[in-house]
C-alpha cells in the first residue's frame, strides 16, 4: 500500500510538472509568434513605403545593374520543360542568362530541349569550382532568339544540390537565381529581387521572396494568368501554410537579419560567397537552409558585415503535392533535413560568435521547430494515460486545448486577411473567406499529418534510412492549359 501511495504521489507530481511545462511552452511559442508578426508588419510596411515610388525601369536600363544567371535543375521534366524554359527566357531584365541543368534525365527532357531550342554541343571552359558529378556536354542554341539559353547535360547526382552546383560552375554573372524548372516565375522577378542588392549599403548575400501554391491557378504556356486558391483539400492547406510561414515568419527574420532559409524554389545569391562557402551540400535534405547557414558562418567567421533579405511579394508559384503519398515524402525529407542541418551546425547553437543566427535563430529552430512535434506526441500520450487512469484535470486540459486551438485559427486568419489587404492576389472575397474557413479545420486535419511526418523524418535520420531526390509523373502545362499542374516532389 505504501508503494502504491508513493507511485501515485510521484505520478501526480510528474503530471503537475508536465502540465506546467506544456502550458509555459505553449505560451512561449505563441508569444514568439506575436513578436514575429509585429516584426513582419514593420518589415512589410517599410517595404511598401520604399517601393511605392520605385521606378523599376531605371533598374532595367541601369548600366550598374549586375548580370544574373538563372539556374534551373531538371530531372525527368519532359512534360513541362518546353513551356517553362520559354517562360524563363521571357523574364524582364537587361542582362541575364538561363542555365538548364539536365541532371541525367531518363525521359525525353534533353531531346525536347535540343529539338525545340535548336541546340548544339559547344566547347565550354568548364571550371569545377564546386565539385559535382561529371558534366558530359554543354549546349547552346544556333538560333539568336535563344542566345541567353545554356543547357548543361551531366550525370545524375541524385540531388537537386549537385545539379545546382553544376549550374553555378557554368554561371558567368556575379548573381545567380536558383529555381525549379517546374515553378512559375513572375515576369519582373529579377527586377524585384535584385533591388536589395543595389540599395543596401551593407553587402547582401542572398534574397528570398514569397512562394505560393500554383494548383488550380490558371496557367498558359508557363505564364500565370490568374491566381485561384487550390481546389483540392491538401494543396489548399499548403496555401494557408505558405502564406503564414512566408508572410509572418520569414519577413520577421529578415527584419532582424536572422533569416537562415531562402527557399530552393526561388532565391537570388551572391555567387562569390556561395563558392567560398562551398556551394550546396549534395548530401543535405535541407540544402537551402544548410547553404545559407554556411554562407552566414563564412561571413561571421571572417568578420564581414552582411545581410540576408526577404521581399513579401509573391514572385514564384510552385505546385504543391496533391496526394498524400507525395506529400509524405516531401515532409519526411524536410524534417530529416532539419535535424540533419541542426546536427551538422550544432556549434552555431547558442554561440555568440555567430551573432543573431547563433543566439536566436538556431535556438528557435531547435526549441520550436524541431522539438515541437515530439512534445505534441508525448503530450497526447500523457493525456491519454491520464484520462485512462482517471487523474486528468479536464478543466485545465480543455482550457489549454482551446487556448492553443483559438490562437492557431486566429494567427492563420490574420495572415490570410493581411496578405489579401496588402497584395490583393485573389479577385473574389469568397476565395478569401474560403481560405479563412480552412483555418478552422487545419489544426484538426492538416497539422497532425505534419507532426507525424516530422517524427517520421527524424526516425529516418536516426536509423539511417535512405531518402532519394525522387521522381513522379505529372500532367504538365501543355496538355491542360488553364488548369492545375502536378509537382515534382523534388521541387518543394
TrEMBL record:
Protein keywords: Glycosyltransferase, Membrane, Transferase, Transmembrane, Transmembrane helix
Entry's Gene Ontology molecular function annotations: glycosyltransferase activity
Keyword Glycosyltransferase: yes
Residue ranges that the Swiss-Prot or TrEMBL entry lists as coiled coil: none
CDD domains reported in the protein's UniProt record: CESA_like
Pfam family, one: Glyco_tranf_2_3
Membrane-crossing segments per the record: 22-44, 362-385, 397-417, 429-449
Signal peptide: none
Highest taxon of the lineage: Bacteria
PANTHER family, A to Z: POLY-BETA-1,6-N-ACETYL-D-GLUCOSAMINE SYNTHASE
Family under the similarity heading: Belongs to the glycosyltransferase 2 family.
Protein name in UniProt: Cellulose synthase/poly-beta-1,6-N-acetylglucosamine synthase-like glycosyltransferase
Source organism of this protein record: Thermoflavifilum aggregans
